[in-house]
Amino acid sequence: VQLVESGGGVVQPGGSLRLSCAASGFTFSSYTMRWYRQAPGKEREFVAGISGNGFTTGIADIAKGRFAISRDNAKNTLYLQMNSLKPEDTAVYYCNAPNAYNTWGQGTQVTVSL
């Protein structure tokens, strides 16, 4: 079971990024997936989650109205579209498969700065 995030980078406030998480080693479409983030000196926090079939999603208050979670089960890939980024969104973003051995990816750095 493996998760590999990509798509992070440096962006100015108000900008957008789309993160991807490529999954392998399990039946991706059968599993809920989640995005978390961890800023320096802070605990890891939940950002968004999506059911296996993609029909049900949940977004944390910190991301509502700005971020959207989606998945492409044909490509075994999870996405996080992030718009209207703020400096406080700076963090390492992780994807997680809570019911597939609670697998985590290695994370991708997002930096929002002028």
Radius of gyration: 13 Å
Counting DSSP H or I runs of 4 or more residues, the number of helices is 0
The outline comes out as globular
**Relative strand content:** over 45%
Termini distance? 37 Å
Structure description:
This protein has 114 residues and is an all-beta fold. 0% of the residues lie in helices and 50% in strands. It contains no helices and eleven strands. The chain has strands at residues 2-6, 9-11, 17-24, 33-38, 45-50, 57-59, 67-72, 77-82, 91-97, 103-104, 108-112. Strands 2, 4, 5, 6, 9, 10 and 11 form a seven-stranded mixed beta sheet that branches. A four-stranded antiparallel beta sheet has the order 1-3-8-7, with no helix packed on it. A hairpin with a 5-residue loop joins strand 9 (91-97) and strand 10. The model has no long low-confidence stretch (mean pLDDT 97).
